[in-house]
Amino acid sequence: MESPFVKNGYHLEPLPFNFYGKNAEKLILYNEIYQTDVALGDDFMVSYLVDKVDGNGNTEPVLVGHKRRTPAPVSVLLLHLDITELESGNYLLAVEVRNRHKELLSRKETPFQRSNPYLHANQESLAGAALQDEFVGKLSAEDLVYSLKAIAAVVPSDEAEWLNQLIKGGSPEAQRLYLFAYWSKKNPNRPDIPYMAYMEVANALDEMFNSGLGYGFETDRGYIYLKYGSPADMLKEDNDLVAPPYEIWVYNEFPVTNQTNVRFIFYNPSLTPNDFRLLHSTARGELNNPRWELELYKNSPNEVDGDDPFGATEMQGNFGRQARKWFNDY
Do 82 and 138 share a structural domain? Predict the structure, then answer.
């Protein structure tokens, strides 16, 4: 294919300006080095550097990499550099060629600018930002409240009270500001990407666990799913004759608390569709109820294990009473 944009089989479209805006995540570098087979008789090193330039012209390296190359008529360097963590400012992109003795043979420099206004975003720094042009600007008042409720399971604990106040009586501007600041911390260049991925899960949980009392992701099962992700295994029991329906969720790996083999048991004492409540868990920081089995089988109060019904934590063995066995061994 004949085109000035085709180089060694690659179709390249150069930027019209050396400027990377707030949505840019990658800097694509293409560089050709000629006649190293003639000028050099051995392998050589190609280094690529990104230096930040301050107001006085001083430079500070922020990204450095090296590639070893074999002599050839044309040696191509094609890289995709992650610039999501580059702060707003002026930069210098350089490519250096050095021989095996680390002597500098050539250096080529290209200046560029980076705009990354949401890199260290918080509500204070975002005050006055033109959020109407961002994804939160397209959300209705109802969508804003829905989205804020959906992240209640994952916001830091010290922000929970403020989030509740925003949901109950915050202005749409304040709600947009909080929501945008939260997702900008996940991806400062494209906060809409993690937002959309998360809300896809929240919407599915809303439909899956909806009981008619709030959103499905606000139920205990929805909350745990959003907070910790999908369980590795799940057991549903609807046919225990002396217990309400219950579910056991198993997490083999639980990095949040650095645990393994973490378990949750939910039960539905009201028998209302999808009204499952957390009964007990082995996860640190979650509900821990040593007497959970007695609560589950409270319709059999005379069958507790031991002589002390007030201090007992287990039920007597019974062929049809399998919850503790499943919880411990499933």
Answer: no
Q: Which residues pair with 237 in a beta bridge?
A: 246
One domain, residues 179 and 86: no
Answer for the pair 275, 292: CB distance below 8 angstroms, yes or no.
no
The string over 166-194, giving b where at least 16 C-beta atoms fall within 10 Å of a residue's C-beta and e elsewhere, is bbeebeeeebbbbbbbbbbeebbbbbbee
What does DSSP assign to residue 69?
E
**Alpha-carbon gap, residue 179 to 295, rounded angstroms:** 39
Can you state the angle between helices 141-150 and 172-186, rounded to 10 degrees? 40
Q: Structural domain tally of the chain?
A: 3
Its domain, for residue 299, covers: 231-329
Q: pLDDT tens digits for the chain (330 residues)?
A: 566 667 766 777 777 778 898 888 899 999 999 999 998 889 999 999 999 999 888 999 999 999 999 999 999 999 999 998 898 899 999 999 999 889 999 999 999 999 888 887 666 666 556 788 889 999 999 999 999 999 999 999 889 999 999 999 889 999 999 999 999 989 988 999 999 999 999 999 999 999 888 899 999 999 999 999 999 999 999 988 889 999 999 999 999 999 999 999 999 999 999 999 999 999 999 999 999 998 998 887 777 766 776 777 776 777 678 899 899 988
The CATH number linked to 69 is: 2.60.40.2550
- Give CA–CA dist 256/262, Å, rounded: 11
The two tokens of residue 212 are 């008619």
CA 177 to CA 186: how far, in whole Å?
A: 15
> What are the C-alpha distances in Å from 278 to residues 4, 59, 324?
64, 56, 15
Determine the residue type at 141. A
pTM of the predicted structure, to 2 decimals: 0.73
